[in-house]
Amino acid sequence: MTEPGPYSAHEFDGVPRIEGAVGVPDAYQRLWVPHRMAYIRTNHVGDEPEDEGCPFCRAPSLPDEDALIVARGEHAFVLLNLFPYNSGHLLVCPYRHVPLYDEATDAEVAEIAALTQTAMRVLRADSGCDGFNIGLNQGRIAGAGVADHLHQHVVPRWASDANFFPIIAETKALPVLLGETREALAAAWPR
Ligand SMILES: [Zn+2]
Known about the structure:
6 helices, single chain, two-stranded antiparallel sheet, alpha+beta, 31% helix
């Protein structure tokens, strides 16, 4: 059998080939992020589990510990992302089930902004992070996992997290780490 492309039969881009493996090497490197499957599996358009309801509408009815809620405001609340990109990945949500930012009321927008600022201060003080990614995915096509209920991501970043391995490692011990993280951030949150 002739090998396609200019690569040797025994390695590709410095990585030894596995004998008998299926597929042909190409120019792309793969980053495997299995924790994303939880979103992908449950969020196909038109494939939502009908009895599950909206997780961000349900969360405030639960105890803080069960819902991973860090702080509750008047119009919005803060909780840990169950599928974090990084340790301390927070979501700021209005209580109201509203999908888009431009549909939020002035009071909701103001409190989401204020809670986001407090989240930055608490995360910085608690974890010594070096930066943040803050943003809104608006619509499923833009990457929103729960597209029907507005939520702002606040993701702390460390200079050393660029290799993504801390994220993958975090996934293995998620329940313990999330509970501990929630406790620490809730304790540090100004009342
Ligand atoms: Zn909702």
